[in-house]
Amino acid sequence: MNLENIRKTDPQIADAIDAELKRQQNTIELIASENCTSLAVMEACGSVLTNKYAEGKPHKRYYNGCEQIDIIEELAQKRACELFKMDHANVQPHSGAQANMAVFMATMKPGDKVLSMDLSNGGHLSHGSPVNFSGLYFDVKSYGINEYGEIDYEDVRQKAIEHKPKLIICGASNYSKIIDFKKFREIADEVGALLLADIAHIAGLVAAGLHPSPAGYAQFVTTTTHKSLRGPRGGIIMCDEQYAAAIDKAVFPGMQGGPLEHIIAGKAVALLEAAKPEFKEYASQIIKNAKALAQGLMDEGLDIVGGMTENHLMTLDLRKTGKTGKDMANVLERVGITANKNTVPNDPQSPFVTSGIRLGTPAVTTRGFMEEDMTEVAKIIASAIFSSDNETALDNLRARSMKLCEKHPLYSK
Predict the structure, then answer these.
(1) pLDDT of residue 413
(2) Rounded distance, CA 342 to CA 173, Å?
(3) Could you give the 3-state DSSP secondary structure of residue 198?
(4) For 150-164, how does the pLDDT look when each residue is reduced to its tens digit (9 = 90+)?
(5) Is 224 one of the annotated active-site residues of the chain?
(6) Which of 227, 267, 291, 358 does the annotation list as catalytic?
(7) Would residue 143 show up in a list of annotated catalytic residues for this protein?
(8) pLDDT, mean of residues 107-119
(9) I want to staple 217 with a disulfide (CB 3.0 to 4.6 A). Which of 122, 181, 338, 353 is the partner?
């Protein structure tokens, strides 16, 4: 990658970028919320658009000189609406958490009730964690998953009837099963609540038609653009037309100022890429790879929360091994695999330690990994966990993971 100008101006930063590129090239990336964008997306994000302030909406800006900015932002909006079959899109949120914040601001007042998935069961920080804005300013009630790792929709219904929330949130940061948006809408209608579907993790699968869509069921759909959608780091809000004005006002001036138009350009490019037939093939391979990884881990004697995955991720339950998620995530990094510690249902460990590891396949699928590669990855993971104190064994496992990285190079051309 060309860093000529950075190297002249700031060689320390250039060296760090070079080192990070090498880390990504030489590491098997299994963090479920990470992916590797196309070079086209990166070019858009590093373009002259970073120079432009553009507060407001297309054709209603507070700054002059936004003609091309308006074209780019409207393309991103149009592509998001077409891809996800929604009426309106606001592509300005800097992140998925801010997208969720805008929905809260547009639909509720502080103290109003929300029903969402508990963070320890797979929900997201911005769905009601006590340390997040969502939990600090709203009265959040939670539902979880059952012993089979699945949402119990009757339990959700009973909690909705009991608490009568103004907003129900479906979608998660760590849920490996198909989400039934129709059932959630039926529950929301029964108690007079609005429905927000946060599809940040599964957006690429939804776009490819490989996971049911929330369109037609959720009045609000939020997503990040950098996970299975394979775009730049950022957020998007989509909604029914009747809520468009309220959402736009909540984004600006409600919770942020000038949009990052270079990132919006990257979003537009990613959305165009996601509409192509080859993206559906890619998304299909994500699921195949996840299933192969889950099966491989179970074949090695390890437990997966809920058993077989139905999407792009899974949680490795380490309780019977006597190991912690924190320690084993560090061991995996030692052998060239990055993943993140994660709680399991009824976790005896703290959220800072955990008894699980979350694993996902979007990034390795971008690199070209196939099912047989994921079987080898599963063997490396299992061996690392069972041999975590054996430095010689870990060295050998690092060599095996490096061999897979060399087989599927990243940004090598």
Answers:
(1) 60
(2) 10
(3) strand
(4) 999 999 999 999 999
(5) yes
(6) 227
(7) no
(8) 96
(9) 181
